[in-house]
Design brief:
mainly alpha; 147 residues; 5 helices; 0% strand
Length: 147
Amino acid sequence: MKILSNLLIVLFLMVSCTSNTIYEKPKNLLSKNKMADILTDMYIAEGARSVNNKNLERLVDYMPLVYEKHQIDSVQFAESNFYYNTRIDDYEAIYKMVDQRLKNLHTKYDTIIKKADSINRSKLYRKRLPKDSNDPKRIYPEEEEDF
């Protein structure tokens, strides 16, 4: 009898632990594109925590600014995130969009930084050149304008 009761308990636990729960859509579900926008901004905000801002402050929480920018609250995001989290295919599509957007931003800003670096290097190079009064096209450092 004891073996039968233990077997029934184990069988009951195995049946009750299956995850066949279907979650309903929240009333204020965010679209996949909106979720991708928000998650992209969240990753950027999280990355900015470890960098000094213009006031030399670190570890600033920028998440409230992300919610404000997208005109949502943390509860709406959490409900939508949980719903999409239960639908693996949808969540994977959202994260592919986020990954592509972050790669595009990285490429864009990397190009801008390389251009700024080359401008700075050319300024340093021009400062080292001797002043030649015979070259009318030569721009001298004291004549340059700040960008």
